[in-house]
Amino acid sequence: MFRAILILTLCSGLAGCEFSSFANTLAGNQDTSNREYYPNDDDIVRAKTYFREESYGRSYAAFRQALSLQPNDPAALLGYAASADMLRRFDKADGAYKKLQPIIGNRIEYHNNYGYSLLLRGDLVGARRHFIKAYEIDPANERAANNLELLRNSVNFPKRAAGDLKSL
What is the reported pLDDT for 49? Predict the structure, then answer.
């Protein structure tokens, strides 16, 4: 009888070990040394490359992917807004600029990009206001000076009605 109780105790003890959290299973032995705690910036690097190549649809998608990982990343928000502007998706760009305003609202990058967005929409007065702010922040910035020149050139081009060029 004593022998049966001893065998039963040993078997129940061994069975308990198999179900414990320290079991020697595949999931418990996986190497996690190459896992990163923070998301990397591969999406942003890829998106910037697409943007430079003027592949705005791809850059828009890549910046959107980056934002799904880091929703308040200023670089991803700025790139997303710029890509949306180039696709004429001003509703999406406005959402990103609104989110960016409290984060980097008084930086030259914000004013240059938002001013360019307004220029694309035909709001020359609003674009000028932001280009001037960018220029005041850094008068030596080449992009700020170029944006002001672009604005001056935009004012000199005549506005045409939608059907004016059909006869050409």
Answer: 96
Which of 138, 1, 126 has the alpha carbon at shortest distance from 154?
126
Instruction: Give dist(CA 58, CA 83) in Å, integer.
Output: 9
Write out pLDDT tens, residues 7-18: 544 444 444 444
Alpha carbons 77 and 54: distance in angstroms, whole number: 18
The Cα 82–Cα 60 span in angstroms is: 8
Best CA proximity match to 62, nearest among 73, 74, 48: 48
Domains by residue range for the chain, with CATH: 41-104 (1.25.40.10), 106-156 (no CATH)
Per the prediction, the chain carries an average pLDDT of 81
Which own/partner pairs from 147-153 qualify as long-range (CB within 8 Å, at least 24 positions apart)? 147/112, 147/115, 147/116, 147/119, 150/119, 151/119, 151/124, 151/127
Average of per-residue pLDDT across 83-104: 96
